[in-house]
Amino acid sequence: MSEFDTGRRLAAEALGTALLLAVVIGSGIMGERLAGGNVAIALLANTLATGAALVVLITIFSPISGAHFNPAVTLAMLLRREIGWAMSLGYGA
Q1: Residue range(s) defining the domain that contains residue 66
Q2: End-to-end CA distance of the chain
Q3: Which of 1, 4, 72, 73 is an S-S bond match for 8, by CB 3.0 to 4.6 Å?
């Protein structure tokens, strides 16, 4: 992870977060439209699509930025002193 400069790491994090947001919103819309009013099916479709996309995004972006798409991951890495304050603020922004 350290072979990439800060700009690339932050850009990868921003792109990964944007893609995850698009998948979550898109899968929610897809689930609503395809479920025919069945909330359980809509939730299942949303969950499966989001989970699959998250696996792909983490696989792609983990070598570059660590794939901190969840602020709790950034906080845990900060508390373990694996990243500094400046990088954690960049990931949170």
Answers
A1: 6-92
A2: 20
A3: 4
Alpha helices in 35-93 (DSSP H): 39-65, 71-79, 85-92
Residue 61 is which amino acid?
A: F
CA dihedral 89, 59, 2, 87 (to 10 degrees): 0
pLDDT tens string 48-63: 999 999 999 999 999 9
Answer for the pair 69, 54: CB distance below 8 angstroms, yes or no.
yes
Whether the CB-CB separation of 16 and 76 falls below 8 Å is answered with no
Q: What's the domain count of the chain?
A: 1
Cβ pair 71, 30 in contact under 8 A: no
Domain assignment of residue 49, yes or no: yes
